TrEMBL record, chain A:
Its main location: membrane. InterPro entries: NADH_UbQ/plastoQ_OxRdtase_su6, Nuo/plastoQ_OxRdtase_6_NuoJ. Pfam families: Oxidored_q3 (PF00499). It is found in: Cell membrane. Belongs to the complex I subunit 6 family. It is a multi-pass membrane protein. Keywords: Cell membrane, Membrane, NAD, Quinone, Transmembrane, Transmembrane helix. The keyword Secreted does not apply. It comes from the Bacteria. It catalyses: a quinone + NADH + 5 H(+)(in) = a quinol + NAD(+) + 4 H(+)(out). This is NADH-quinone oxidoreductase subunit J.
UniProtKB/TrEMBL annotation, chain B:
It is found in: Cell membrane; Membrane. It comes from Microtetraspora malaysiensis. Its EC number is 7.1.1.-. The gene is nuoA. This is NADH-quinone oxidoreductase subunit A. GO terms for molecular function: NADH dehydrogenase (quinone) (non-electrogenic) activity. It holds the Pfam family Oxidored_q4.
Length: 224, 119, 453
């Protein structure tokens, strides 16, 4: 970081490309929230992430740029797409994509953006750093993560642990509410047993998940 | 940045070729309209407008994608670690062992909860 | 450039634009021709393995068979089913094809040569994070599969797309992990430098003949290489992991609705280009890259000029022949076996091997605390084994429970053959046990025990 002010005009090619990428990112982000087709929204999100990766590239953060592609484009949006495909994603436009909180959401978004922009401008308005090719390569990054930022790195492993366990707990079907009747809003019929004690040996005819889902559905119907 | 110019050139070539092939396809072949031909293929029965099972796929796919994200992140950290290993030495090894062991705890939990089983 | 080890990162980024265009066009044309003749080669080779002739009508040795097939594809009717999501349906073939080509941009084919007076490496470009680019392209290719499946709006396609993408991402993890040991050994992610690191090892003196020790990572990092060789089959959806094309259950998988025409050709193209890409990565990372192996490398000029391109090509043909060989030999695995193998075997093995290799590497640092490292290693090994045994007993118990359950069902079926509502034939008719019916008891006709009858 230096505080020496570089020449801002005329803009260099890098600055122009960076600005253009920013416009692409912003535009595609807007399309994500305005398009009425779910899968197209996910695809616009890919464009947005791609533009961000391009931005990192221009800033010579090569490793981060490819990680952006690999993790966000290659993994997270794929997860989103799986989620869309697993539900009844209708083809074409779907109504009811807007929640009733548009005003609140817009306010929160604008507020967050305002806070971020203010902080960045206040904090780094006079700080400049030269762009050196190769500064964001794996070796430099590795040395800095595993020497200076050890604690965040180790904390991340705990975060990953929590994420995985959360995913499993959410998708487990053998954990049910202690009192299914409370969910269904009525007293449980005393004659129907809530559910088999523990489906340890899975039914031979289908996956554990399917059997569990139908099971819980039946239970709540009986309860109501 | 100069390193990326050739990639861009190849990308333009490949994308141009693929887009050309896909867009030329309707014009190179004959056109013999037939209603059944334009139905989605379902072994000759009337196609259902919704995906199989009314859109209820096994949750397993979601869990696989989650696992994929977590392990992808782990790989992403392994790469700079591997490259910088010579300068990190023993300290780096201990760090990575701690990291991998923590993630493996989650992995073991998933395994125990049959998250890795497809049946 | 170092004449003995070939180009490194500093040699890149100096090409004028026209040279980049020439190289890019060259790679593109080679890959297209590679697909055309790769298909022919595969069909021909697998035919010979199965005592058939294979294509032998179009052109000499049937060489033009793929050209004829490609032309035929272009002249077929282009069907776009009514129900598809048009944008996604048309986008998918493009998305699957482009990244397949892009991954080849960091593949090193040879050392520095002079093209029209410009000194340049025989490689389109190289990045400090080149291998990451290959992985990123593989993960973008998944979109082609998911979108083709979803956009088609057909149950087979959507199920095939889901399955196939889940398979590809699973094997991508194992693949990414198998690279880590290479990076540990080479200390870089750049493909040209990884090739340079595999340039030389020590030498053995055998009867006055100097045989260089193999410096390929395939040998020094054998576990990584074996795991990579398996994952490259899974990543490209090839036999024995070609589940997406399980015709019996999924028709054509994610490309069911791309029934004919050039759109299907894109999927075909992408599949073969992907095979070439993973083969190229195998060569670059594990098989010494473009460098000639030992007996050839005695000749001084083997690793200079344009020759290395020939070595690379020969290696590529051999790796591709390996794909064909596997296809001719192995049956398709079941989906649960596929996923279990990827997640429960390849990934833990890979992680254990990485830690083991890193420990060995740390031991080699002279001033390191050997006792501490050994203790750490012992704890890891014991802990890993303990967890594995625990799982093993747990799984064994589950397996026994399942077997008992199946046995129970069989018992029930034996008691009443019509259990379950389906008329089943009696399970132990005499001829099941090799007993011939009374009329055929004579040995006039010899029984054919195998083969066709």
């Amino acid at each position: 970081m230096t505080s020496q002010v570089p020449d801002l005009w005329p803009p260099s090619a890098q600055e122009v490309v960076f600005l253009l990428l920013g416009v692409v990112a912003l535009g595609s982000a807007l399309l994500v929230v305005t398009t009425r087709q779910l899968v197209h929204a996910a695809l616009w999100l890919v464009v947005c992430f791609g533009a961000l990766a391009g931005g990192y590239l221009v800033l010579t953060a090569e490793f981060v740029a490819w990680v952006q592609v690999l993790i966000y484009v290659g993994a997270i949006v794929v997860l989103l797409l799986f989620g869309i495909m697993l539900t009844r994603a209708p083809i074409g436009r779907s109504a009811g994509l807007d929640s009733g909180n548009r005003v609140t959401a817009a306010t929160v978004a604008v507020g967050t953006a305002a806070v971020l922009v203010t902080v960045v401008v206040q904090g780094f308005a006079t700080a400049y750093t030269p762009l050196e090719p190769g500064g964001g390569a794996a070796a430099t990054l590795g040395a800095s993560i595993f020497r200076s930022w050890v604690l965040p790195f180790e904390a991340l492993s705990v975060l990953l642990l929590a994420a995985l366990i959360g995913a499993i707990v959410l998708s487990r079907t053998d954990i049910r509410p202690a009192n299914p009747a409370a969910d269904a809003g009525g007293p449980a019929a005393p004659t129907t047993p809530p559910h088999p004690p523990d489906p340890a040996p899975p039914p031979a005819d289908g996956s554990g998940a399917t059997a569990g889902e139908t099971g819980s559905g039946r239970v709540s119907r009986d309860g109501g | 940045m100069e390193l990326y110019v050739p990639i861009l050139v190849l990308a333009v070539l490949a994308a141009g070729f693929a887009a050309f092939s896909v867009s030329i396809a309707p014009f190179t072949g004959p056109k013999r309209w037939n209603r059944a031909k334009l139905d989605a293929y379902e072994c000759g029965i009337e196609p259902t407008p919704q995906p199989v099972g009314g859109g209820r796929f096994p949750l397993k796919y979601m869990i696989t994608a989650m696992l994929f994200i977590v392990f992808d992140i782990e790989i992403i950290f392994l790469y700079p670690w591997a490259v910088a290993f010579d300068s990190l030495g023993l300290f780096g090894l201990v760090e990575m062992v701690l990291f991998i062991v923590t993630v493996l705890v989650a992995y073991a939990y998933v395994w125990r909860r049959r998250g890795l089983d497809w049946d | 450039m170092n004449p003995t080890t070939g180009p490194t990162l500093v040699d890149f980024g100096h090409d004028p634009l026209w040279l980049s265009i020439i190289k890019a066009v060259f790679i593109f044309v080679v890959l297209m021709l590679g697909v055309l003749f790769g298909v022919w080669f595969e069909r021909k080779l697998i035919s010979r393995m199965q005592h058939r002739y294979g294509p032998n009508r179009a052109g000499k040795f049937g060489l033009l068979q793929s050209v004829a097939d490609g032309l035929k594809m272009g002249l077929k009717e282009d069907i776009m089913p009514r129900t598809v999501d048009k944008v996604v349906y048309l986008l998918a073939p493009v998305i699957i094809a482009v990244p397949a080509f892009l991954a080849f941009s960091v593949m090193p084919f040879g050392p520095m040569v002079s093209i029209f007076g410009v000194e340049t490496p025989l490689q389109l470009t190289d990045l400090p994070v080149a291998v990451l680019l290959v992985l990123a392209m593989a993960s973008i290719g998944v979109y082609g599969i998911v979108l083709a499946g979803w956009g088609s709006r057909s149950p087979y396609a959507i199920l095939g797309g889901l399955r196939s993408s889940a398979q590809v991402v699973s094997y991508e993890i194992a693949m990414g992990l198998s690279f880590v040991a290479v990076f540990l050994a080479a200390g870089t992610l750049s493909t040209s430098e990884i090739v340079a690191k595999q340039a030389g090892g020590g030498t053995w003196d055998v009867f006055g003949l100097e045989i260089p020790q193999p410096s390929w990572y395939a040998i020094s990092l054998l576990p990584s290489f074996l795991i990579y060789a398996i994952t490259m089959l899974g990543e490209t959806n090839r036999v024995p992991f070609d589940l997406p094309e399980g015709e019996g259950e999924l028709v054509g998988g994610f490309h069911t609705e791309y029934s004919s025409s050039l759109k299907f050709a894109m999927f075909m193209l992408a599949e073969y280009v992907n095979v070439f890409t993973v083969s190229g990565v195998a060569i670059t990372l594990f098989l010494g890259g473009w460098r000639a192996p030992w007996p050839i490398s005695i000749w001084e000029g083997a690793n200079t000029g344009w020759w290395p391109m020939l070595w690379f090509f020969i290696k590529l043909v051999l790796v591709f022949a390996f794909f064909v060989w596997v296809r001719a030999s192995l049956p398709r695995v079941r989906y649960d076996q596929l996923m279990a193998f990827g997640w429960k075997v390849l990934i833990p093995l890979n992680l254990a091997w990485i830690l083991l290799y890193a420990t060995l590497k740390a031991l080699r640092v002279p001033e390191s605390n050997k006792a501490f490292i050994l203790t750490l290693g012992a704890i890891i090994v014991v802990g890993g084994l303990a967890i594995w045994f625990r799982f093993d007993t747990l799984l064994q118990r589950r397996r026994e429970a399942k077997a008992a359950q199946i046995e129970e069902e069989f018992e029930q079926l034996r008691e009443e053959p019509e259990a379950g509502g389906f008329p089943v034939p009696p399970l132990d008719l005499p001829h099941y046990h090799g007993v011939l019916p009374a009329g055929q008891a004579s040995t006039a006709v010899k029984e054919v025990t195998s083969g066709s009858n």
